[in-house]
């Protein structure tokens, strides 16, 4: 199964700076993996290519999303664990190496963790904002400044423990969001105004478009990069109607949210092949509990 969002159990410093400031790296990259990747192994290849003066710290957490099979920990608890581990690791490193640059990177569920910490740091002055940047891949909370945003600002909360928290920003901290156009996790069309566009993202996710070339040192910068892709489900632009996303309309009303997502799931299923229809449970955001 393609990884979705991530969590781990402890903070592991793969490259630990020595105590003297002279031994500190010029830049430390903090890395958070996605669902099923508690040790951020998705970063292994890029870590082997880091230049001198750049080190990395893998931040471990549970990387789990109940109700997915084999995931005993809810996404909310997993994300909270990751945020605590990452925030502590970043602040401890800055305390030891106050002049070093800090890059915070996350993939999928790890992008929720990394992005939420970057959001908190943008409202904090403990670490100068010019010393911090972020690189996020397949972020479910990606802002909708460049077309549709992430799924957490589109689909409402339908399962306790799988909270859809909406979009968030980063103030004056430079953050590079990287997203594939066929990936419903970060590029999620409003299913009310563009059902086939939303279905395209679901098919893309199930077909591997949630995979990314992970290399935060090469992808630093600021702003939003959406990789254009040929659609997997033919669709046009959204209807030009001033209708909010289901998240905007129903989030906070669990019963109405579940009814809305049930309708969306049934409509999307009609646009899928039988094989992909059987895999819809891999998207817990559409896994409406049985009545």
From TrEMBL:
One Pfam family this sequence matches: Cutinase
Is the keyword S-adenosyl-L-methionine assigned to this protein? no
User: One MF term in GO for this entry?
Assistant: carboxylic ester hydrolase activity
* The keyword Cytoplasm belongs to this UniProt entry's keyword annotation: no
InterPro entries per UniProt: AB_hydrolase_fold, Cutinase/axe
Recite the UniProt keywords alphabetically.
Answer: Disulfide bond, Hydrolase, Serine esterase
- Please name the PANTHER family in this protein's record: CUTINASE 4, CUTINASE RV1984C-RELATED-RELATED
Similarity-based family: Belongs to the cutinase family.
What protein am I looking at?
Uncharacterized protein
Query: Native species of this protein?
Result: Amycolatopsis antarctica
């Amino acid at each position: 199964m393609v990884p979705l969002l991530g969590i781990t159990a402890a903070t592991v410093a793969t490259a630990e700076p020595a105590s003297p400031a002279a031994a500190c790296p010029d830049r430390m990259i903090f890395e958070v993996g996605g669902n099923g990747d508690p040790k951020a192994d998705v970063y292994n290849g890029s870590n082997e290519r880091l230049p001198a003066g750049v080190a990395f710290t893998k931040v471990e957490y549970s990387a789990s999303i109940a109700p997915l099979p084999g995931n005993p920990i809810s996404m909310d608890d997993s994300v909270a664990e990751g945020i605590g581990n990452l925030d502590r690791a970043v602040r401890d490193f800055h305390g030891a190496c106050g002049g070093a640059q800090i890059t915070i990177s996350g993939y999928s569920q790890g992008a929720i963790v990394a992005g939420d910490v970057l959001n908190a740091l943008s409202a904090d002055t403990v670490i100068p904002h010019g010393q911090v940047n972020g690189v996020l891949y397949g972020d479910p909370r990606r802002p909708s400044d460049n077309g549709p945003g992430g799924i957490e600002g589109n689909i409402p909360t339908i399962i306790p423990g799988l909270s859809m928290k909406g979009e968030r920003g980063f103030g004056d901290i430079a953050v590079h969001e990287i997203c594939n156009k066929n990936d419903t996790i970060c590029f999620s069309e409003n299913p009310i105004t563009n059902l086939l566009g939303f279905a395209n993202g679901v098919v893309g996710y199930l077909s591997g478009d949630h995979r990314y070339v992970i290399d935060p040192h090469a992808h630093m910068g600021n702003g939003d990069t959406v990789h254009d892709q040929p659609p997997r489900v033919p669709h046009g632009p959204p209807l030009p109607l001033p209708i909010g996303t289901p998240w905007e309309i129903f989030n906070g009303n669990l019963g109405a949210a579940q009814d809305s997502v049930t309708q969306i799931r049934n409509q999307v299923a009609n646009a899928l092949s039988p094989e992909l229809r059987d895999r819809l449970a891999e998207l817990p955001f559409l896994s409406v509990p049985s009545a």
